[in-house]
Structures are given as C-alpha cells and as structure tokens.
Design goal:
about 270 residues, alpha/beta, Endonuclease, Chain A, 2 domains, 9-stranded mixed sheet, 10 helices
C-alpha cells in the first residue's frame, strides 16, 4: 500500500473512508475530487494511491473499508503512544520526543486523588523536592502517601538501630519538616554493619492512584529530576501500576520493609 496513505492523519483517513462508503467520491480518483478530505498538496499523490487500489480490483466501498482499517490502526497507535511515554532528564532535547522527568513527577503528584507511592535510593533538599507532595496533602488530606527510602549511614560508621534513629531524626527535621506525614519504610539490610549482608533499596518509581507508574533511573533529588542524564518511562496501565504498588505492600506486610520511626510522638502520620 502506498506510503502516502500511512502518512495521513486519523481524521483525514476517517473522512476519506466515510466519503468512499457513502459514494460521494467516484472514480477516477483525480486529485481535485479528493479536495473535500485531503489537502491540495497531498491530493495528487493520494489520488494515485487510490487509483492503485482500484486497479487491484477494489471498488469504492471496499476502499472505504481499507481506509477505515488504517484509521483504526492509527487510533490504536495513538493510544499506545499515550500509554507509554519516554521520560528524560539531561541537556539533549533534540532527539526523539520525550517528557522531562521533573515535569512528569510534578504532574503525577499534582493529579493524584487517592494514593501515591514514591520509592527512591537517594534524597536531597527535601524541603524543595517534596514540596509538591506537601501541596498534594493540602489539597487532599486523605491522600494515602507511602515513601520507601534507602537508609545507610555506613560512611559515618553508624549502623543498626542507631543508624535508623539518626536517619529518622535528620529526615523528619530537614527532609520532611511538615506536620502531615507520609508513611515511610526502609530496607533494614541497609543499616547492617557487615558488607556481606548489607543491601540497597535502589528502586526508583512513582505510582499514582494505582493507574499510572513512572519507572526511572532518577532518584528523588533535584539533580536527578532537573540536571542529570536520567531515563525512564511513564506507563498508563492500571494493572501494572497496581502490581508495582502491591509488590512493595507485600514486602511491608512480610516485614522485609520496616517503618521509619517518628522523631517524636506528637505528629500524626498522613493517611493513617
């Protein structure tokens, strides 16, 4: 089939299909007879392509069916493109189309209505980077927010419960200083003193409302979301989004992820 037909928009294909099915367009398919559906610049090439289909034995209604199938294919392609979007941070914005990591994260947070799951390996400048989450809480106090982080103070030679307590103090003081709090969990293997047993919580994702999921190399830091070269994909797929969220919930239930202690007992955890 001629490449020109594959280049036409879905709307143009649907208009042509309707015109052929109703008999408004009759052979021979000269360019001027197609002007009601096709631009003048494309009409000549489209006419040649349609004459080619007629030469193969297709009549008008049959050509309409072919055009309708092409339009449906184009519509499905658009749905797929909308469902899967490449997400990118970095200086090169001249290659294939992509969406900015920081913009996608802010969109997911701002549009969340019922729940948010955020997982990250590294956090920096929490008062700035978590501001959209705080704003989401303000818009919807019942929003259920779960944050899964990596706890590791081995560089400071602090391990075990002492490391957890120190990380919690610093987190609730400098990274999340607001009254409304998310549920925060960590992998206890990150604070083990033995290098042979220590492990990282290295997953980075955002799940919004169990409907959309961003899976990315970017940590929850300003550098990662705005400056670093980072690659990810945002997927609008309820089944996948819920499976990702359920995977982390199952680890919490099994005790593989533990709750980060509160610095003090006078603040209420959000969503609980």
């Amino acid at each position: 089939m001629s490449a020109v037909l594959h280049r036409l928009s879905r709307v143009t294909l649907e208009q042509l299909a309707a015109a052929f099915s109703s008999g408004r367009i009759q052979p021979p398919y000269h360019g001027f007879s197609l002007r009601e559906c096709v631009t003048a610049g494309d009409a000549g090439e489209v006419g040649v392509a349609l004459e080619g289909l007629r030469a193969q034995g297709l009549n008008g209604p049959q050509i309409g069916i072919v055009l309708r199938l092409l339009a449906n294919e184009r519509a499905m392609q658009q749905i797929q493109e909308d469902r899967l979007q490449m997400v990118w941070s970095g200086p090169d914005q001249h290659g294939p189309a992509s969406r900015d990591t920081g913009a996608v994260v802010r969109e997911l947070l701002s549009q969340a209505k019922t729940s948010l799951l955020i997982t990250t390996y590294s956090i920096s400048r929490g008062e700035t980077i978590f501001e959209p989450v705080r704003e989401a809480f303000e818009r919807n106090p019942s929003l259920d927010v779960t944050l899964i982080v990596h706890v590791d103070l081995s560089r400071r030679k602090i391990f075990g419960d002492q490391a957890v307590a120190e990380f919690a103090r610093e987190f609730w003081t400098s990274q999340w200083p607001w009254a409304a709090r998310p549920r925060v969990y960590f992998d206890p293997r990150g604070v083990l003193e033995s290098m042979d047993q220590r492990a990282n919580q290295h997953a980075k994702c955002v799940v919004a409302d169990g409907e959309r999921v961003l899976i990315t190399s970017a940590n929850y830091t300003e550098w990662a979301q705005e400056r670093n070269i980072e690659l990810g994909v945002v997927i609008r797929d309820e089944g996948l989004a819920q499976r990702v969220a359920m995977k982390f919930r199952s680890m919490i239930v099994a005790g593989l992820l533990r709750a980060l202690p509160a610095e003090s007992g006078n603040r209420q955890s959000a969503g609980g």
